[in-house]
């Protein structure tokens, strides 16, 4: 089965873009682009946790609501959320009202603060788990990898929640720790070039 599709604009993209009209813009401007910003990394790992058992389209259409509800995913602020905030979030129809996932995000914000104190930044930590590209060849052929298993295990050891290997692998795909754009996708080489020139955080 082909892993690429031709859009109405004539561009060859990853086939999953056909699943929803919102996906083209997300694919073309975000997915797989290497990210070293701590807030964006924290946002994504939280949203991947909320996606568990749901579709990414559901999360993407609610993303702005999530950002408002979770203080722009500033983990220093989210770490201060209390029981009243949990109840507020459970009453917010604009997000996924799942107590376990909400409480996990607040917990993970606290763990993120600890990680920054220990590692210097979330980016320095996550990019330390960047796998060799041949671990995920051919592209889009797996939903977990040895590295996502190792990263998941380490995060859980540090007290993070809703960070299973599949969730972590999706995070790695989206944040550019790997280039999982399909062969033939018009962005694959661009992402390779961006990753090649990226200064890895340390």
From TrEMBL:
<feature type="binding site">
    <location>
        <position position="27"/>
    </location>
    <ligand>
        <name>Zn(2+)</name>
    </ligand>
</feature>
<dbReference type="GO" id="GO:0006284">
    <property type="term" value="P:base-excision repair"/>
</dbReference>
<protein>
    <submittedName>
        <fullName>3-methyladenine DNA glycosylase</fullName>
    </submittedName>
</protein>
<dbReference type="GO" id="GO:0046872">
    <property type="term" value="F:metal ion binding"/>
</dbReference>
<dbReference type="GO" id="GO:0008725">
    <property type="term" value="F:DNA-3-methyladenine glycosylase activity"/>
</dbReference>
<dbReference type="InterPro" id="IPR005019">
    <property type="entry name" value="Adenine_glyco"/>
</dbReference>
<feature type="binding site">
    <location>
        <position position="14"/>
    </location>
    <ligand>
        <name>Zn(2+)</name>
    </ligand>
</feature>
<dbReference type="InterPro" id="IPR052891">
    <property type="entry name" value="DNA-3mA_glycosylase"/>
</dbReference>
<dbReference type="Pfam" id="PF03352">
    <property type="entry name" value="Adenine_glyco"/>
</dbReference>
<keyword id="KW-0862">Zinc</keyword>
<feature type="binding site">
    <location>
        <position position="185"/>
    </location>
    <ligand>
        <name>Zn(2+)</name>
    </ligand>
</feature>
<feature type="binding site">
    <location>
        <position position="181"/>
    </location>
    <ligand>
        <name>Zn(2+)</name>
    </ligand>
</feature>
<dbReference type="InterPro" id="IPR011257">
    <property type="entry name" value="DNA_glycosylase"/>
</dbReference>
<keyword id="KW-0479">Metal-binding</keyword>
């Amino acid at each position: 089965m082909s892993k690429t599709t031709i859009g109405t604009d004539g561009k060859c993209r990853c086939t999953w873009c056909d699943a929803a009209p919102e996906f083209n813009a997300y694919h073309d401007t975000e997915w797989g682009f290497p990210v070293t910003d701590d807030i964006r990394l924290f946002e994504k790992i939280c949203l991947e946790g909320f996606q568990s058992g749901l579709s990414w389209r559901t999360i993407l259409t609610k993303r702005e609501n999530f950002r408002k509800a979770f203080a722009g995913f500033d983990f220093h602020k989210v770490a201060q959320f209390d029981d009243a905030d949990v109840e507020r979030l459970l009453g917010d129809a604009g997000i996924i009202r799942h107590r376990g996932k909400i409480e996990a995000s607040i917990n993970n914000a606290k763990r993120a603060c600890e990680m920054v104190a220990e590692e210097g930044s979330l980016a320095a930590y996550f990019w330390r788990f960047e796998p060799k590209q041949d671990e995920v060849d051919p592209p889009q052929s797996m939903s977990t990898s040895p590295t996502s298993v190792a990263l998941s295990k380490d995060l859980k050891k540090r007290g993070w929640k809703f960070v299973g290997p599949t969730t972590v692998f999706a995070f790695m795909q989206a944040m550019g720790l790997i280039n999982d754009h399909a062969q033939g996708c018009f962005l694959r080489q661009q992402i390779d070039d961006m990753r090649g020139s990226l200064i890895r955080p340390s």
